[in-house]
Every structure is written in C-alpha cells, then in structure tokens.
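Progress against Task 2.4 (sequence-to-structure conversion) is shown through the following example record, which the project officer requested during the mid-term review.
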Amino acid sequence: MSKKGKVLVAMSGGIDSTVAALMLHEQGYEVVGITMKTWDYAASGGSKKETGCCNLDSFNDARMAAVQHGFPHYILDIREEFGNFVVENFVDEYLAGRTPNPCVLCNTHIKWRALLKRADALDCEFIATGHYASVYQAENGRFTLTKGIDETKDQSYVLWGLQQDLLSRTMLPLGNFRKTAIRQMAHDFGYPELAKKSESYEICFVPDNDYRGFLKRKVDGLEDKVAGGIFVNKEGKILGQHKGYPFYTIGQRKGLDIALGKPAYVTAIHPETNTVVLGDEEDLEKADMKVARINWIKYEGVHEEMEVLTKIRYKDKGSQSLLIPSADGMTVRFFENAKGIAPGQSAVFYEGNDVIGGGIIQR
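Structure tokens generated for the chain above:
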C-alpha cells in the first residue's frame, strides 16, 4: 500500500483521464484504473459510427495505458443504471418543454456514485477524474469545488451537483494545469497519439447530435402525438404550424421553417397547448429567473441576499447577479438582463473562482 493512498481513477481512454491516472501513479499513489460503459450506441439507432467514451477503442486505450504502467484496470458496466435514469430524464424533460443537461445529471447521480461504490469495494480512499477543476477544504470545513486555471477548459460548471461526501474523496489532478501542459505530458509519458486524439463534446447517447431523431426513436408515435402545433408571437397571434414542441429549444433560430421577413427566435415553449412562442432576439432577455433543486457546496446554504456570478450554460462567461432566497428555491436577479435562459438547464453560482452551488432553472 502506498503511503500516499490508493485512488480509483476513471479512465475514458482520452488524453485528460489518461494523463490524470499516469500523473497520480508517478506521484506515488497506488492507482487503479476503471472505465465505465454507460451506453450502447447501437441501441440509439443513430446513423453515425460509435464515438466518444463508450467504444471499444477507448476501452483498449485505457487498459493499455494501465498495463504499460503496471497498475490494474477494470471495466464497469453501468448501462442499465445510466439508461434508466439519465436517458429517461432526458426524454421526460423535452416532453415537458424543457432543455435538459444530461452530462450534469450523469456526473451527479451516476458516475460519481458508481465510482465511490467501486472504490469502497477496492479499498480506495480516493476517486479521481480528468476534469479541469479543483477541490479544496475551505476554512469552514466544507469541501469546495473551484475553477480550473485554464478558463477555456474549466469544467466546474458540470460538477455543481457533487455533494460533500463525494467531494471529500475526489481528486482532480488537472485543475492546476492548462491543456497545453497536459498535451506535453502525454508526449512525455510516451503517448503522442493521445495529444492528437479528437475530443467529443456530444452527448454520449446522441453522438450524431440529432436529439430530435433520438426522441422520435425513443417515444413511439411521437411525431403523430405532437403534430399540428402552432407558432405564436408574444401577443398570441398565430404565425404558422410547427412540427411539435419537443423539437424546439429556447433561443433556437435555425430550422424553424417559417418565413416572417426577419429573424425569429424561440422565446417560450408551452407543452400543454403544443405552442411555441417566437419573438425578436431582445425577447430572449430576462431580468431574473427561478432556480430549484439546489446543491450547496462552499456554504451550507445562502439564507440572505448575496452577490454572485451566475453561469446559465457551460460556455457562458457568467453574469453578475443577486441571489434572493425564497421558500421554494432561489430567485436570481441579474444586474444586466441575461439572454437565452432555458428551463431545465443548470445555473451555477460562483464567488470568485469557487462554486457556491448550483441548481436547475425553472423559469
């Protein structure tokens, strides 16, 4: 047993998780690699070749790195658990007229819990991943998630749902490095091909990026059930027919198949009437929003008004805002109107580089 401890590292076969595992191994930790199979792409019925973290090549790449450096590697099959929870939520949210973020849900409820369960079985004190973020214990004793130093790669936004029992055992060794340094490390470890390996930003179970096609395949007769819906403007005037409310998202401009003589954007979705509201770009701007299902990280909670930076999407730079506690969650009031707030997406609150907490946008 290493004096530094034993750590279970999630290895997807990509550059980030591979370098994370090799870095910890070099630092003297007793490393155990694990690759999680979350999804059979063939089950989705898509037209594109299987890519991303769940294909055989990725499994082999992860195992090869472990074998070459002398530490064990396992494959963990969580397809049933993943499908029942993440995929069903993905479908249900679109049918409710919201825009889900399955990667956040997967990290929060599936991957970390599966890792921790297997870590306990293998007597590992820690779990580690290749995410660009860091964890530290604050003065108040709470384990706090903070941004990675590489702003272009920071992934703290997608980890807001991690609870204290998970963060207390999580190592994120890449948080203090830039991507360029990680690419150089891949070369130095003898894996120059990893530095050239393309990265996938697609949803793993929708690798062709066609979520509409995925919904049609998952829900029998969906097109017939939602056919005949109407586009309206903000005054309620009928503008034309659409293909069904689940096939549209807030802020969408392209693919509306309607000519209004000017650019039109989806500004609201009403599933109960199969109505999609179209408006101008400025109609996407909102002064506030409601957030619920909050997971607090840096503090046990926010019980009085607090100024924070709020991000409403992964690549969002963030907006200065005021958190206002309420009985059913949190109201976020922006100092300047925010554009493209989509119910179902995540809102994450920052104090400096630290994640205070996050939740699901309600409206």
